[in-house]
Amino acid sequence: MGVTGGPDPGLYNPDLAPVPASRRTWGLYNYASLWVAMSVCIPTYMLASGLIAGGMSWRQAIGTILLGNLIVLIPMLLNAHAGTKYGIPFPVFVRASFGVRGANIPAVLRALVACGWFGIQTWIGGRAIYSMLTILWPQAAAFDGGVWLCFFAFWALNMLVIWRGIDTIRFLEGIGAPFMLAVGVLLLWWITAKAGGFGPVLSAPSKFQTGSEFLRFFVPSLTAMVGFWATVALNIPDFTRYATSQRAQILGQALGLPAAMTLYSFIGVAVTSASVVLFGEAIWDPVALLGRFNQPVVALVALVALLIATLNTNVAANVVSPSNDFSNLSPRRISFRTGGLITGVIGILMMPWKLLSDYSAYIFGWLVGYSALLGPIAGVMITDYFLVRRRELDVGDLYRRGGVYEYANGINYRAVAALAAGVGVALLGLVAPPLRWVYDYAWFVGFLVAGTLYRGLMQRSAARASVAQMGGEQC
Q1: I need a surface site. Which of 30, 339, 380, 470 has the fewest CB within 10 A?
Q2: What would the pLDDT profile of 34-85 be if each residue is shown by its tens digit?
Q3: Considering the chain, what is the average pLDDT of its residues?
């Protein structure tokens, strides 16, 4: 489906254009493998291991992860529909609800979160390189700046992949997951053997003595699980615009996401539980745990595989969306490649080493915190597409000024107001301790507040327009 009537150069470039039918070649397998490739990664492992470090039993941790991923799958599939039907990416799709200029607000918020994730993955990869270096050359451990040099070397490698474009990303998607699965299985085999098998590893009880203690940890943890993929739940049209059919993307995602996340999370849960048995503490960072291997060759192979998988996940999950989002700011000046370079620079500025300082900062600070920004955006987008527009979009007007998505000088202030209200309410718990539970449910609260308010404002606007039209006809 193409653009007719001449797109506005300020709203259009080839990277943002609707994907023609001839290029929609991604089938069920592509989407299932995409989710396996993106799920089988170090942040998934650390998400699961963080729950164990926080006191959950292995059953509680796996149940929390499975439930969170089943929940986030719902907005994922809802937002994916427009990408498949119209072939448009996220920053173009969001113009329908926020306006052709107002779309930059949610696009930039989403892009900034992706930049943070890009920095986190790059920091993990840099530390993996440093660990390999110290295995090959132990004297390198005495060099204070070694980990920083490795971090920037891995950053440069990511930039090279981005520069080569989307085809390289798709190639990496197919080879990254097997490597990361191999690392996980290797860690699981090694540490459970050391700990005396699965019996001792999975026998550790929950540290929570009462139901209320458990709920205080469970609720924000569940929000963090949803927040983990709340980013891709927004920009999933960037991928489903290439789908051969709705069935292919729906089944591919439904089969790939919950299964891959839960299975790989089990490895993180089991390995971290075993680290408690062996070392008397929960080592939630797999890079640090690999450093305790007493077989240098095995550790080296595992770190190489970890590095390849991290590169794959980083580029596929954390570059495609922000590159398009930054391109949307000025399509004539910012291409996909330039947007990717911007992502890399901002990723460094967000200081990922602080976001990974401990499991609490990662889960309850980073994941829950940014979910307060993304939940309201999802609420507005889904409400607009399914309840306000009934899944009907004018693709041509998404790329031109003065059309149905012009609103007030290109901005739908109703969507902006709903977004602000959703974010404000979700973050209220940070400044009002008695309302801390509101922050713990940040994504859910933001989604419901923004979606409900947006529908009310749009219905009121439609009613006013109808009254005004009737008045004009009477005159």
Answers
A1: 470
A2: 888 778 777 888 888 888 888 888 889 999 999 999 999 999 999 999 999 9
A3: 85
Single-letter amino acid code for the residue at 400: R
Instruction: List domains and CATH numbers for the chain.
Output: 21-357 (1.10.4160.10)
* Cα–Cα distance for residue pair 96/343, rounded to 1 Å: 25
Under the banding of pLDDT at 50, 70 and 90, the label for residue 447 is very high
Extract the tokens encoding 43: 């942040």
Model pLDDT for residues 193-237, shown as the tens digit of each residue: 877 777 776 777 888 888 889 999 999 999 999 998 998 899 899
